[in-house]
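Human:
Care to share another protein and its fold?

Assistant:
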Amino acid sequence: MDPNFLYQFTEPDPSIADFVESIGFFHNRSDQPKEVVILPDGRIDLFFTQFASGPYHAMLMGLETLPEQRSIPPHMRTLVISFKPLAVEYILRMPIAGFLNSAQDLPSNFWNFSTDELDNFDRFSEKARETVLQLLPQEIDSRKQQLFALIYASKGEMTVKALSEKVAWSSRQINRYFNYQYGLSLKAYCNILRFRASLAHIAQGKLFPELNFTDQTHFIKEIKKFSGVVPKELSKNQNDRFVLLSILKQS
């Protein structure tokens, strides 16, 4: 583990758990850049980033479908709210299809976090919870709630046909919704969640498929597609460069 790279991610209060998956931070305390690989995980991240002692910068990251090599500058500190897809329509209230595999800058005063709140993780977490609760709409489409509950519970393993039948919503309409809001199909999203679920097994040193992969060859191909490396190399996670895997190993 890299002692100069700190991170912490916590589960949200149950009152906002349908919309927020985690709240956390990471901090490169080193005088050198930290090289990391960001893996697709099915979440939409709202970042508040500070370089050294300068002002905070807000940015919304769209869904990612490919691994991306990034360099975290020295002394950069970032707070992050990781949203579930349902939050895009009901909390953020803006489709993110236009920045698939990219990000959009936001006003520096987005959600009106004060410097004191951004400098203190507990205050940041509480302000995030309060803000999400204030933004909750009076009504939410029950089909969408049920759809995402099933997707998460099955870890992306249910077929589009089965999901469609369970929620009484045609697969064509579901895919139209997904492409409009997120920029990818339901099947593509489910594949990302299945990959992410497999990371928990790889973090434990289990390098064989335990989910609904056709065979070992298919498993390796999917892992390499989303991580850029084969399961064995991913499991080694040299220099903590796969941050998501490092977090899973600690949980």
Observations:
- Strands lie at 5-10, 20-28, 34-38, 44-51, 56-61, 68-72, 76-83, 103-106.
